[in-house]
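worker-03 picked up job from queue 'complexes'. Input manifest follows; two sequence lines, order preserved.
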Amino acid sequence: MKSTDTDVFDKIKITEILNGIPHGTVILDRDLCIVEMNSSLELLSGFTTSEARGVRADFILRCNIGKSGKLFRKLLETGESLSVEGNIITHDHKNKPIHFTVSSFKDENGHPVGLFIFLEDISILHSFDQKGSSRDGLKDILGHSPKMLEMLELMPVLAHTDASVLITGETGTGKDLVAEALHNASKRSRHSFIKINCGALPESLLESELFGHVRGAFTGAVKDKPGLFRLAQNGTIFLTEIGDLPLSLQVKLLSVLDDREFFPVGGVKKIKVNVRIIAATHRSLRELVKRGEFREDLFYRLNVLRLHLPALRERDGDIRLFLDHFLRKFNTSLNKSIKEYSEKAIEILTGYHYPGNVRELRNIVEYAVHICQGKSVKKESLPEYIFFPQVDLEVKEKQENGQVPIDKSIQNQPEADQVTYSNPTERGWSDIEKEMIINALKKTGGNRSKSALELGWGRTTLWRKLKHYNLN
Amino acid sequence: MRILITIQNKSVAPRFDLTTEVVIALCEGQTIIGKPRTILMTRPSSEELCALIIKENINTVVCNGIEESHLQYLTWKRMKVIHSVVGPYREALKALTGGFLRSGTILEGAKQGVKNG
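worker-03 finished. Artifact:
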């Protein structure tokens, strides 16, 4: 790059301007080598600006337009602009459809000094074209039970604020889906949504993943790493299983939430970030706070807005909705033509308590669609285990190891469980459900409407279950 | 060890699926045996390239951008794939035989060598 070009780029903090653009953006010099690129492109390519600087762009972009840079060179010579669709290979080996806008820029004498390339990710538009879906993420969430309707009413409100959201709920209730839907419906939707499982990585790696590191910070840190917080700039970071976040990192996360800045591992320069945090957990954070495993201040800081996802068994009528939805879905994907469930199968499927919630229901339907040879899903096509009362596998395992006494294990149920169970090992779901009804009736002084509301059911469902359990 | 590098001019090709030229080298320990062989393909095709890799009994593939399906296929075929390598292919070969070529490496020569290539 010539010194005059350098002067132009030095006059303004070009990186800061580029990082404000929500799409991949790169500036090339007259040799078609990278001068600057923004954090969105770093995220797409997997290369940092400092390593990519000086390298010819086509080797970093890995796009399918203008082989060997011929097209870029022609644009540089003619001074023309170009707007074209193509694709790139991303750092995670995805072939991503991209809309490229390429334009040249000239010095004061009118001589071309470089190119400006703007890469807009259009994969979402492609997927809509294919699926006929809508961009509004909220529409992907199914459910018409009172508890879900209540939650769906709240979601647009939560999406339009910038405060942290804590999503709680049992495993398989759709916390990830809701987090992504909140991001897609927010004003940050054009920026990145980055998800990280706090329980999936050891503490040292997690810190480096979240906050990045500088070259030489530790053995093996051969180059600067921006970290997910920086890559999510102006977007949303979703910290799932936040209850598993180590205490030392909880302090650092708290400081990010308070000051919106942090030091990368081994770094001396503070990094400012503008990121919305959505956290999720299936564990009771309040219980973890009591046990000293989760910082109270962080709990209150994350708990600004709370969204609790009801368990499937609390979602009156939604089981049937999901059964039909997944039957349609797997019919298409597995090229089957199953029309319906038999009455017996429906009775079993709607009576099952789904400890794994929607995820479990989906797997049961997938199993049934695979196994079913006729036009109707019969009892024989269902997995055997649903005919027997199941105990929470984790609790059972701990009980077998003598780690948790039965009563204690029940106390440790996530706070998502509003229901108090007594001893699930000795009784089936029917007994637990019966006890739930009795508890609700006791609580509401025998008022059936209020009890139904308390249980998240319709009045008719409660009436049917009262009759079924002889509680009239 | 039989090594295949996808190339474009004298550099590791930006994309596996658009590659029309490969270099095959035979290496024992840190020494390259004989002269690396260049093969020109009639057209860019990931499937044909995968077939060539299998036919040539390659142990290690060096490339830059590669789609997940092809990466998984080659890994499943017990091949070592070093991807996201940027720079002159000779330098990549040298780094590989030296035992220090990793996925995601931008080689020193990328900043000059790529331009000249």
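worker-03 released lock.
The domain at 137-309 of chain A is CATH 3.40.50.300 (Rossmann fold).
The radius of gyration of chain A is 27 Å.
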